[in-house]
Design a protein that fits this description.
alpha+beta; Immunoglobulin-like; 2 domains; 4-stranded antiparallel beta sheet; 3 helices; about 30% strand; disordered N terminus
């Protein structure tokens, strides 16, 4: 009987451990599933919701075009106004893009570098603007704010823009197929306000 008891207890213990391991292993995929579903949700406007919010070490944009049809009319990160409602909106990187040409522009990419003017720290980010196109003669807007509506793309919520209380300078490049890379600059002033101005 003792042998049976000794044999039974380890089996029960193993079953319990296996059940716990099963619980933890079934809990592990859950974040992946929610991450995948979040990526799928934002895939309407982005190719990959995870990688664009991580800093990159090099600029992957390679665009030899010389046509000057693409322009960054404005780039701003604070004191923003929603172009539709006219209401003030929270701080984020907002680009106003214009196609002054006679053909539609597609294949948009954005690369921007933030520099903390006090510490000298820099971070660079790249985003393929999947789903975004600019008709001939049109002007439209792109936002980096982690929202999922068309024209909205991921940002790193822990970036220098969000975390530094110092002035942060932005150097921005926007590329589209068949048009020369357009550039712009903007500045986040001192403070970490991020609320509606």
């Amino acid at each position: 009987m003792k042998k049976i008891t000794y044999l039974t207890l380890p089996v029960v213990a193993l079953v319990s451990i296996g059940a716990l391991a099963g619980c933890s292993s079934s809990a592990t995929p859950a974040p992946s599933a929610s991450t995948a579903s979040a990526a799928t949700t934002s895939s309407a406007s982005t190719a990959d919701a995870a990688s664009p919010v991580l800093p990159v070490s090099t600029n992957p944009i390679s665009n030899p075009a010389t046509n000057q049809d693409l322009k960054v009319v404005s780039a701003a990160v604070e004191d923003l106004v929603d172009p539709v409602s006219g209401q003030a909106i929270n701080d984020r990187l907002m680009l106003t893009l214009q196609n002054s040409g006679t053909t539609d522009l597609t294949g948009f990419e954005v690369y921007y570098t933030m520099t903390d003017v006090v510490t000298g720290a820099t971070e660079s980010y790249y985003q393929a603007l999947d789903g975004f196109a600019l008709a001939a003669g049109a002007t439209d807007y792109v936002y980096f704010d982690n929202q999922t509506e068309p024209g909205h793309y991921p940002e790193n919520q822990f970036s220098l823009f969000r975390s530094s209380a110092n002035e942060v300078d932005f150097q921005i490049q926007v590329s589209a197929q068949g048009a020369a890379v357009a550039t712009a600059t903007t500045v986040k002033s001192t403070g970490t306000g991020e609320a509606v101005d």
